[in-house]
Input
Amino acid sequence: MSGNEALARGAYDAGCRVAAAYPGTPSTEILEYTSQYKDMYTEWSVNEKVSLEVAIGASLAGSRSFCAMKHVGLNVASDALMTQTLIGVKGGLVIAVADDVGLSSSQNEQDSRYWGRFAHIPVLEPADSQEAYDMVKYAFDLSEQFDTPVLLRITTRVCHVKSIITTSGRVEKDSLGFVKEQTRLVMTPANAKHRIPFMHQREATMRDFSNTECPLNTIIPGTDTRIGYVTSGPAFLHVSESFPDAPVFKMGLSYPLPTDKIREFAATVDQLVVVEEIEPLVEIELKAAGINVIGKDILPLQGELAPNILRPAIAELLGEPIPQIEPDKRSGISVEVALPSLADGLFPRPPTMCVACPHLGIYYTLSKVKNTIISGDIGCYTLGAGHPWNAMDTCVCMGASMGVALGLDKGRAESDDNKSILAVIGDSTFMHMGMQGLLDITYNKGNVTILLLDNRAVGMTGGQENPGTGHNIHGEETQRIDFRKLCEALGVNPERIHEVNPYEMPTLFKAIRKEVKIKEPSVIITNQPCVLVDYYKNKPSFEVIDDKCTGCTNCLDIGCPAIMVTRRETVTKPNGSTKELAFVRIESAVCTGCDLCPKTCGPDAIIPVEGFTRD
Ligand SMILES: Cc1ncc(C[n+]2csc(CCOP(=O)(O)OP(=O)(O)O)c2C)c(N)n1
Output
């Protein structure tokens, strides 16, 4: 199982009854796996805050409950967390948060262990799938034993790496039932102030537990006592692989920190090195406790601490020769180099939009719209910032396109008075956090045109359902939100709301040109589905007639990965200037006949493949 599957199975086997999440790499599959267990309620929530709130409600109803999110999701959910910690739990409450160490698919890199300290709750850190399975079960017990939400910090490597694991069956945990208890469950100032001492007392008790009984904090003895390592999560595996003879203090419960136990361990080695991904949290706490440790002065503050990082750093510390990395005999790739970053020997696979993606026509159109500042957002459409469209000017976090657009409008310099402000946002992102921003735009009379890209899927994370798709996580039919009505309800003048087919680029272009000139908020909703949804219908593929292709490159501006350059040529014009030509071919096997590229082809060199059939 992958770590994500193991977590889902562990939650199920622990008797969890309610699980909620909003997708986000690397955590997405956790909920996808939980949804296969029929006797557990599972939902895609509209954002992480709501998912945590659902889990909180279920816990207060007496059921074991679980929610999962990526690291930035916990920023969104943090408002609920910071007060929930005062309330505590009824049924066990476990929050799995996945840190994208190395930024394989995120807008930033964050260390979620901070949230454990901030919210005064325990943090568990599994190193692999077996531990993910075991620890999620253990986390439910801890949660109920200490009356606390528990944070399970995982990283991309735990989430996605597969290994064989041993499971046990599900233990049924009936719901305890809701008990009215206002002084604890209604967090007014008068009630909350009495819960703060409880929270601090709970943390102190857990610190003792971490130092004494907790079976997750263990010493792995070693013969080479020149350096002892303090580590947690997958960094433990990197340390074990790099220094098999070294003694290691492995933390499964990394907060509250087992400082006393580590102090005892320190006395058994010459030097203590803390190996932690990402921030020096443990290091700072140990130093504050007067324990002599080395950490981030020799190790990076970013990315995974794989053997190719660890071994040279430690060799230097010990004054030993820096190890040479032997390439793997079969692949020719240095395994150690391959761990934290893409190896040189691998073919680069930069992210691209899919063949025939409806966003292609939108960004082709946007790349032709002049005098506009484009406030972007997070989703597949963020790729519009790149080649060949170059049609996005800002991107911060989910939903930010709305507020940022309003700020760009209100804060503009006189010299920018002639510029239009456009915001681009996907359907899921709009419902996650964008709606409030649009309300702010209408309320504060912003001069912003919004392109709402309704592709009826959370495309970026694999096409999950959302309230715009009309289906829930199990594929069952449910109500489907009407974006036009929603925008109207948020204050947009109904005459300024348009629905456009993004494959009809001239219509889209005209709608944008018209709306940006009108000085009130407007919304253009594009209405064609993501190509990855089940019901997407392919049409016959296109091909290029070689003799007719003039090498003008217009079709390449669409950015469709089915179009390939076969030959480049530089021609000199009569006035002496040069022009780069690129002759193309279409990979018919992947072309879905969306009809975007023929619309850009002056010489009509792109035509449907005659007699084309699909298997
Ligand atoms: C707070 C937060 N949660 C989750 C994510 C992961 N994520 C990135 S974009 C996205 C949604 C994209 O869906 P949509 O807006 O519909 O655009 P599409 O990808 O379909 O074009 C998600 C879930 C994130 N980056 N930040």
Q: What stands out?
A: The first helix runs from residue 3 to 13. The chain has four domains: 3-211, 217-326+333-338, 358-526, 542-608. DSSP finds 19 helices and 21 strands in the chain.
